[in-house]
Amino acid sequence: SSALSVCVLRLGPGEEIFTSLKKFVEDKKLKAPFIITCVGSITKATLRLANAIASNTNEGNQKIVHLNGRFEIVSLVGTLNKEPHLHICLSDKDGKTVGGHVISDLEVFTTAEIVIGECNGLQFTREMDERTGFPELVISSHSEKA
């Protein structure tokens, strides 16, 4: 078998990307999935901006933004497992961009065409890292019998 498998997911108007990706990964029993590329548009997003550190892990101290409007998905990247870690960059009607860590509410406007890769033979999990205060990616070997 090859070291990489590829799946494609297309979501339509009103569907939510974050939860749809979690369900897709569970249904397909993917062990080490990641986003290869995504194009589409959304009408809503909840993002955490880049000031979160271990000392402000409670949501009240983080910069959370709730976006409403029509945005093009310029980029969506990340690793997927039971706790997906996704970053997104969006552009508004004037081409201005905003980006951050996806919290939730990525509601599709017209479409989201998502290409998902999987590293065969590996498994992605998350464990709390005392250095960062966040659950961080752990990569391990995985056999079909596991």
UniProtKB/TrEMBL annotation:
Domain (PPC) ranges: 1-140
CDD domains: DUF296
InterPro entries: PPC_dom
Protein name, UniProt field: PPC domain-containing protein
Species in which this protein is naturally found: Latimeria chalumnae
